[in-house]
Every structure is written in structure tokens, then in C-alpha cells.
Amino acid sequence: MRSQLLIITQKLAELGLNKGTAGNSSVRSGDGFLVTPSGMNVEDMTPQSMVQMAFDGSYEANKIPSSEWRFHRDILADRPEINAVIHTHSMFATTMACLHKDIPPFHYMIAVTGGDTIRCAPYALFGTQVLSDHALAALYHSKACLLANHGMIALGRDLDDALAVTVEMENLCEQYWRILQIEPNPPLLTEQEMSEVFQQFKGYGKWAI
């Protein structure tokens, strides 16, 4: 599991979704979870760099978990169907987050998040419980959200699923950003149209509900 978390962390950097020491990821492991370390460049990480944490906030000796461990813990504790959490500062998701914009149903692929709108959580200082509380609220019945003036969070049933949601989330944010350059009030799909998408996704490959 440590190796899988490292591979996903490296993949995020390769895809340009995280740069330097930005972002963090976690995966459920045993009675707790593994989370990426604090302030370490991806190229310096090894499987043993990953930090095992308990849900009471305690962690392995001689290691420091990501400063964002609180929302990783709280999401995994609150969402038993979720086993992996990815947080990035990717370009377009962060751009939309800095505008404090929700991403509405301008495209049917919004449905991959489980809802018809990707919410933007209010701003709070990174690493705080307040930020975690805001994130949990924004993720209600959803697998993705934006964090105002910060970045994005994507969830998955496993690390590969969380990565797929992350990639699609960044793609949607880029598309919406480009649309807003042309039309500030683009046409949106209706509730009925999105309901039909959810029904179609129930048997559709990796996005099956």
C-alpha cells in the first residue's frame, strides 16, 4: 500500500497536477490510513516515507504527516465507501477555487463526482480543523470539491479511482474556465438531464455507480 501511494503521488507530479511539495494524498490502511509526508519533494519520497496514522490523530514515530492530515482523516472516517483521498493545487481547479466558483452542470461529465455541481468550500487556513469541516460540507454526496484560494479534493473507492476523478476534475475546470472567456452565463443541463446521465453511468465502465 505504501508503494501504491508513492506511485500515485509520482503520477500526480508527472501529469503536472502537483508541483514541488504541493498537494497530498492518502489511502485507507488497516485500522487507520497512510498519508504522504510533510514538505517532501516527490523525487525524494520512498515507500517508507509514507506516514501511517490512526483516526485519533496519532502517527508513526520520527515522521511528520502532511499538514492537511485532518481532512484526510475526517473524510475517511465520515465516508466508509471512500478509501482514497487526493488533494492537488492543479492549475485550472485552483484558478476556479481562487474565484470562489462552483462548477455547475455545463457538461454531463460533472456526474463523475456523484452530484450535478462541484461545490467550492469557503476559505480557511490550510491544515486547520475549520478547513476540514468546510471540505466535508462541500463533499456532501460528492467525490470532489474545490477549496477557496487553495485547490481541489478528489475521492475514490481506491487510489486509481481517486486519480481518475482528479484528472477529470481538472479537465472540467479547464473547460469551464475556457467557456467563461466566451460566455459568462453558459447554458446548463437541467436536473432531469443530469438524472438521465446518472442512470446511464450505472452501467458505464469505470464511472459505474
- Per CATH, the architecture is 3-Layer(aba) Sandwich
Rounded Rg: 17 Å
Enumerate how many helices there are, as a single number: 6
Say which CATH homologous superfamily is assigned: Class II aldolase/adducin N-terminal domain
Q: Under the CATH scheme, which class?
A: Alpha Beta
Shape: globular
CATH topology type: L-fuculose-1-phosphate Aldolase
* Element order: H for helix, E for strand: HEEEHEHEHEEHH
| Count of distinct strands | 7
Mean pLDDT: 95
Proportion of beta-strand residues: 5-15%
- Secondary structure class reads alpha+beta
Helix content: 25-40%
Query: What is the total number of structural domains?
Result: 1
Measured between the Cα atoms of the first and last residue, the distance is 25 Å
Main beta sheet strand tally, sense and closure: 7 strands, mixed
Uncertain runs are none
What does this structure look like?
- This protein is of the alpha+beta class and 209 residues long.
- It has a single domain (2-207), classed as 3-Layer(aba) Sandwich (L-fuculose-1-phosphate Aldolase), CATH 3.40.225.10.
- Helix content is 36%, strand content 14%.
- The protein contains six helices and seven strands.
- Helix 2 (69-78) packs across helix 4 (129-138).
- The longest helix has 24 residues, at 159-182.
- It is globular and about 55 Å long.
- The two termini are 25 Å apart.
